[in-house]
Structure formats: structure tokens, C-alpha cells
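Weekly sync notes, structure subgroup
Attendees: PM, AL, DS (notes)

Item 1: joint prediction request from the bench team. They want all two components modeled as one assembly rather than separately. Inputs as received:
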Amino acid sequence: TQLLEQSPQFLSIQEGENLTVYCNSSSVFSSLQWYRQEPGEGPVLLVTVVTGGEVKKLKRLTFQFGDARKDSSLHITAAQPGDTGLYLCAGASWNFNKFYFGSGTKLNVKP
Amino acid sequence: DTGVSQDPRHKITKRGQNVTFRCDPISEHNRLYWYRQTLGQGPEFLTYFQNEAQLEKSRLLSDRFSAERPKGSFSTLEIQRTEQGDSAMYLCASSPTTGWDNEQFFGPGTRLTVL
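Output from the run, pasted for the record:
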């Protein structure tokens, strides 16, 4: 059973469209991270959110942490082919000794 | 520093054989994590080291799996008597103790295929 559920699992959109990816859990996390992974490589950290209700922006990417610190969303504006990849959310245990990853959202942005 | 490195990148073995993977973290990173990732899934936590101490180990990790970090630098993950279900990508990540966001830097992974 996955502690973090991500939706959708797959997303195929045209360049220029907007999209939102969700990460949900019944557990509370001290922090939540978003990663992007490309085929044959390890995940690369995009952002960490720590405070409930927090919103962070990274160029065209907007990340939100739920008020109860159980869920998060990633919104991409005007998607580009370079955004293609596997997006993963990960919740940290209170002491950062353990991370729980979601199953990922595979995004394909067509030119 | 060139980042986290893992060796080998690919390993093909026959069922029942033992395999060992190596991870070299970013120097001075105290924290080191091992994960397993199967196709279409996110990484699954296996174990965690702080310096040379193994502080966390997944209950999913059977007795056939063992990991070490003898001098608090590189780490090895050994799988004994491999099974076909062990086929996966094995990822290593390191992070500094300081740093408020505890960013994990991942290596490229070792892809294991058990025939």
C-alpha cells in the first residue's frame, strides 16, 4: 500500500497547456518534497514545502502544501516539452531518516 | 565534486547468485539512503545511514539484503541468493546533515536484472 497517492498516473498534453498533479496521504508529514526524474537517471529535487498552506513558485511551477500537511499539488503553467518526465512527491519522517515516495505522475508534453 | 556515483550501472545475474552494489556519496554528506525502484513506481525506501551508523531499515528488507557504510563514506548494498523479484533499479542518495530542506542528491542508479 502506497502511503502517498499521486494522481493522475499519466498525463499527455500539448505544449502551452496548464496542468495540475496531486499528491495525497492520510498521514501528516514534517515536510514534503517534489522531484522530477528522467529515464535512466535519479530523481532531482524541485522544491521542499514545510509549512501548512505554503505556496512556492519556481518559474512556471507552483507548489502548494495543504493546511493539514497531508497533501500537496504541483501546477505547471504553459507546459513545454522540456517539462516531460516523471514527477514524484516524497514525504519525510520527522527526523528525515526515512522518505516515502508516491508512485509518480508520468508527464508527456507534445510539441 | 561530481555528485553521487554508483557502480555498476547495470548488472545481470542468474537467480541464486550474490550481487554487491557500491555508492559513493557527495563528500562530507553525512546522510546516505538506499532505495529500490521498479518500473512505473516511485522509489521505495530500503535503508538509511548517518555516517557509519545504520539508523533505519525498511521492514520490507528481507534477510537476504545487507548494507554497510564502514567508514562513513562509501556504502555497499549486498543481495544474497538473488530472486527474479529483486530485479529493479537500486538508487542511492546522500544529503548533508545541515540544510533546512534536507535535499537528497541521487545517483544514476544500478539496474539489476535477475534471470
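Discussion: Residues 16 and 91 of chain B are 22 Å apart (CA to CA).
Action: AL to compare against the crosslinking data before next sync.
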